[in-house]
Amino acid sequence: CGGAVAGGPPLGTLKTTQLVMPLGPLPKRPLLMQLNARVMLHELSGLLGRPATLDDIQDAQLDELAKTGYHMVYLLGVWKTGEFGLNKSKKLLAQDPCMSGFP
Q: How many CB atoms lie within 10 A of CB 3?
């Protein structure tokens, strides 16, 4: 990969507006696939034997997803988590009786 567009500059040198690729006209009700990037990268790390990055996701995997009819992909969990988020999650888990027993 290396660039947001084939033959383009490395991702680190692009401005955010350059990362948006033209989709063309979308149907009246486009389909959005939400993928949990953390889970995906964790599984890929196990296969690679090293920490995986988004760049390790093969274009063929995304092409297969496109063949299923989805028009867009949203990668859930690509942001860095911190202490605040962890503490908030623990607090919410403690308040929900259905979640008792979870760490």
A: 13
